[in-house]
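Researcher: I'd like a candidate sequence for this fold, 575 residues long. If you have to choose between options at a position, lean toward the conservative one.
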């Protein structure tokens, strides 16, 4: 081929995929809308500082409570990251490289703490380890009556948040191990290396960036976690940045926004360090040596397989089944503190909680918000993901936007919530419509925070499409919009639907964002769950938590049943 023909060939390659007209503009507009709350938060602090007014900044930075909360947040997040690594790392190694049986069921159980709202995880551990534990008290293992609950401590916070965020390490490390080129493993085996030496010398070094990325994700998630510290740290008198922001907002309202914005920016700046570490690790994963990518050669456990499987399920029973069993027991006893038995069991708490007006209203609000967020984000994800997988300048712009829209999901939820308050505190310009104090502000926060969650499955499905399909439609005269509607959308619909379901599950009981945005009449289920536990109604809170878990598990099982129709990696718990 002559050099003169190269530009024409390049143009032909570039024309294989086409997004919507102005696809790059669509990407930029979506990015601007998603980042608006964070940009507004930055301006709330930087604007007065540039004008010489550093009153709020100085007041916050000079306060000993600020640095005490910051130190606690960082120390607890680091400890939780260590626990998450110790728990998620070995499970990922076993699930990603060995012939362990029941991997799908094991992965489902490991990922469940990530899908269950953090306040429910905290409540389950409170009921398990407290003096009135319905499981430990009959066995004589509960703390003496009148003594503090062991989880109301820094160690308890570290343990519970580590368990909750271990799935992030598990998923990232397992994905990295499964992406190790099989050629390298087989070459090591061909030169005489045993299976475990091939694992230690080839697979593990290439999987380390994925493990590190999972640790970075766990750190950022633990840093911004509100549900667990709200129930474990506040009673213990341990301030953290998320709980400090919540208490300032609940105590002083919008008048505290200048100082709260500084606190939110502080926690956001710390989180950005973890986000940067994650991006560096992911870049190293993408720079991996070429080879046949696929499931890494299975390493046989031999006679150790059964003991390892038993050990895995024992760990799952201790960190997941036991707390949830304590939560279930607490929802069935007549009076909290009594042992569960035929004479103390009752379903009255379920009837009571279902009859509460605030629960019914919260259920409707959560259903409306999560359903609207899932639907709207699914609609946006299709054209945006299609543009991101296209070549040329528009594709590069869309891919850069794809990195930026990850930011609202990566930073702590309280940061985004404060940004949304600043954006929507006053009526919208030109429209004159106010969203503050309505469901609209919560929906706007959900759309900004969880766009990336809906975008990832859609992007993976669009990347798997053969370009010849669109080329054929284009040769028949179909325009970009018609190709998107008739070719792309039907083919990626299952993956987009799965992404929408993940958004629905995540937002249905969301607390970290909505706890700062709700008002009377706009309560969500997450807020009501927290209020019941904080208000001294543990049995009612336990009953509502169990109902929520049943719904979450049912939806996860339904999505998992459709997993065969979806591209690999869309359903994270499927093997």
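Model: Candidate sequence:
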């Amino acid at each position: 081929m002559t050099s003169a023909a190269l530009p024409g060939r390049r143009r032909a390659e570039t024309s294989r995929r086409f997004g919507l007209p102005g696809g790059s503009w669509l990407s930029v507009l979506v990015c601007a809308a998603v980042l608006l709350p964070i940009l507004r938060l930055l301006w709330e602090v930087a604007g007065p500082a540039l004008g010489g007014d550093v009153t709020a900044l100085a007041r916050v930075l000079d306060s000993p409570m600020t640095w005490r909360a910051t130190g606690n947040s960082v120390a607890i997040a680091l400890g939780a990251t260590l626990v998450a690594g110790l728990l998620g790392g070995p499970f990922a190694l076993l699930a990603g490289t060995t012939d362990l049986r029941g991997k799908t069921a094991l992965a489902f159980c490991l990922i469940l703490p990530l899908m269950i709202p953090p306040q429910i995880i905290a409540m389950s551990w409170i009921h398990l380890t407290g003096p009135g534990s319905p499981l430990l008290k009959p066995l004589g293992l509960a703390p003496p009556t009148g003594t503090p609950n062991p989880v109301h401590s820094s160690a308890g916070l570290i343990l519970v948040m580590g368990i909750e965020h271990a799935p992030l390490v598990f998923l990232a490390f397992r994905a990295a191990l499964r992406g190790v080129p099989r050629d390298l493993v087989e070459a090591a085996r061909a030169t005489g290396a045993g299976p475990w030496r091939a694992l230690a010398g080839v697979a593990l070094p290439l999987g380390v960036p994925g493990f590190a990325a999972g640790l970075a994700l766990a750190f950022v998630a633990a840093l911004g976690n509100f549900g667990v510290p709200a129930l474990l740290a506040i009673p213990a008198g341990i301030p953290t940045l998320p709980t400090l922001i919540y208490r300032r907002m609940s105590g002083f309202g919008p008048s505290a926004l200048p100082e709260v914005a500084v606190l939110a920016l502080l926690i956001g700046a710390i989180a950005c360090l973890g986000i940067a570490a994650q991006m560096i690790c992911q870049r190293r994963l993408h720079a991996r040596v070429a080879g046949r990518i696929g499931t890494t050669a299975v390493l046989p456990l031999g006679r150790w397989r059964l003991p390892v499987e038993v050990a895995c399920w024992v760990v799952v029973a201790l960190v997941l089944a036991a707390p949830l069993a304590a939560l279930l027991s607490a929802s069935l006893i007549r009076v909290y503190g009594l042992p569960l038995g035929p004479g103390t069991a009752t379903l009255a708490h379920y009837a009571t909680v279902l009859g509460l007006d605030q629960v019914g209203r919260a259920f409707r609000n959560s259903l409306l918000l999560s359903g609207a967020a899932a639907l709207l984000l699914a609609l946006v994800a299709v054209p945006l993901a299609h543009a991101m997988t296209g070549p040329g300048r528009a594709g590069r712009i869309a891919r850069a936007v794809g990195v930026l829209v990850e930011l609202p999901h990566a930073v702590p939820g309280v940061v985004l919530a404060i940004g949304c308050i600043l954006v929507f505190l006053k009526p919208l310009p030109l429209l004159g419509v106010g969203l503050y104090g309505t469901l609209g502000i919560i929906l706007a926060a959900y759309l900004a925070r969880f766009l990336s969650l809906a975008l990832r499955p859609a992007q993976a499905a669009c990347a798997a499409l053969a370009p010849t399909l669109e080329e054929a439609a284009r040769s028949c005269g179909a325009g970009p919009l018609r190709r998107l509607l008739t070719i792309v959308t039907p083919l990626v619909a299952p993956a987009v639907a799965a992404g929408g379901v993940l958004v629905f599950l995540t937002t249905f009981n969301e607390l970290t964002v909505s706890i700062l945005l709700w008002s009377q009449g706009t309560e969500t289920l997450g807020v009501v769950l927290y209020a019941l536990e904080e208000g001294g109604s543990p049995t009612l809170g336990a009953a509502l938590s169990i109902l929520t878990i049943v719904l979450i598990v049912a939806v996860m099982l339904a999505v998992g049943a459709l997993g065969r129709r979806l591209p690999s990696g869309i359903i994270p718990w499927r093997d």
